[in-house]
Amino acid sequence: MSFMLRNLKAIPLSWSVCISGRRLLATQGTSEFVLKNKNRPLRVERELPDPFAHKIKNRATFVAFSVGVAAALAIIFNYEKTESPIISNTFYHLRRSPRTRELLGENIEFDGLMPWVHGELNQVAGKVNIRFNIKGSNGTRAIVRLVANKDNEFQEFLIREWSLTADNKQIDLLEEGDLRTLGWN
Questions:
Q1: Domain residues of the chain, as ranges?
Q2: What is the pTM for the complete model shown?
Q3: Measured distance CA(39)–CA(34) in Å, rounded
Q4: CA Rg, the chain, in Å?
């Protein structure tokens, strides 16, 4: 630094910067730079790159980025569905249903590497129309369908349809008991 500050006088110095061969000096307490040679202005001596030179590459990058963001959002929203209390309550009742355990086995869980809940699951609006794949310890796969709604925020969800389809056999889970509502608001 002493090499760069050798010929400067009468300015309180804190540090100097060398940008592309031109020496700049920063004065202490201010953020302003002083050129050592004031006859030569500070400017870029090269041409800026053309942003439209690689149109196909830029468009492909934008499409790939958009697809990645859309896929990430879909995975995040699906994760929120799989972790909702409605799904947890549905699994609770499926695991305790004698007809379901007879058909699927004891260990009932989502089917597949990544569970996917299809349909609308909107607890705030009071609309549930979902379906998802499950499997049991017997190796049998099944599809669960749940349709429920509520008229206002002070009511419980009223179940319209709750079925389990496995091996072309449909089981109406509402016939098993007096469960007509989902037990939360």
A1: 1-48, 53-83, 85-182
A2: 0.66
A3: 12
A4: 33
